[in-house]
Amino acid sequence: MGRSSCCSREKLKKGAWSAVEDKVLRDYIRVHGEGKWGKVPKKAGLNRCPRSCRLRWLNYLRPDIKRGNISDEEEDLIIRLHNLLGNRWSLIAGRLPGRTDNEIKNYWNTVLKKKLQAQPVASTATTVLHSDRDGAATLKNEKEAEASTQCSQDRAASRHQQSGRSVQNVHCNRFNSSAPAVGDLHSDGSSMAAEECDLFDILKGLDTEELCSRYLLELDFFQLLGSTVPQDTRDWCGGGGGGDSYVFFDDRLLLEGAISDTWIGGEHI
DNA sequence: AACTCAAACAACCGCCGGTCA
DNA sequence: ATGACCGGCGGTTGTTTGAGT
Fold this sequence. Notes:
- Residues 9-61, 62-112 form the Myb-like domain.
- Residues 141-167 are annotated as: Disordered.
- It is found in: Nucleus.
- GO terms for molecular function: transcription cis-regulatory region binding.
- Helix content is 50%, strand content 0%.
- Mean pLDDT is 55; it is low at 1-5 and 121-269.
- Among the domains are: 13-63, Orthogonal Bundle (Arc Repressor Mutant, subunit A), CATH 1.10.10.60; 68-117, Arc Repressor Mutant, subunit A, CATH 1.10.10.60.
- The protein contains 15 helices and no strands.
- It has helices spanning 6-9, 19-32, 40-44, 50-61, 72-85, 89-94, 101-118, 142-161, 182-186, 199-204, 214-218, 221-225, 231-237, 249-254, 258-264.
- It is an all-alpha fold.
- The N and C termini lie far apart (50 Å).
- The chain binds a DNA duplex through helix 4, helix 7 and helix 8.
């Protein structure tokens, strides 16, 4: 399995792209469209490997890419989605129109990770659940905490089992009590297009391993998958634009006494 | 002005799953 | 059935930039 780098296999240019190369690639894709990356370098006359072309297009040249700083709302959303999905950058990026997985990954690794680490309660795998107000939902020991976070780590581990690569940066911060409320995030309804936040669409991106936390399993999660999606969830997913009743769907998964209390912070619903 | 260091960003790499000949 | 290829993903590395001294 695997393969040697296509760039090193042949004598292809590596490193930063020049403006000329950008233009050539952009023009080529404008005419021929995306896809068939294997043929792009030759046809476009670029001395680059196909993967490099694809990456350059996806992460930089695509016209719908939003350049510039990550807004507070976007940052909030990234944190929340990361809580839920772990390092599934492409899935997270799929919820942030105009942002690439690479951009989000970089942002997480350089900014958010430090921010969350600076908040002692927030984000380590062994302080998964914590209530700093009444303590009711605090996990009493690390084993419990680890059990609830193991699933996403397992997934990452299995992904890397064969390669023997160590698993790093696999976080499971879904009970991050410092995370701001989604109601704040979406109160203007602007950070997500309606079609972008369909509950089922999001759930499609998950697998059962992602949901194997004992806390999640204790909830009647699958009921959510049936026809009884709560109205307020639909409201939020519809991007209804305002209102105080927005409840993110994974809040639902956590809405059990102190858990939800902890995660939501109590002031937002 | 020169240097150091950290942050930010772009790009590469290894791997996996799907597809197709 | 099999192997090569392609597209995609996440982790890591290299380079650039900017702040601080």
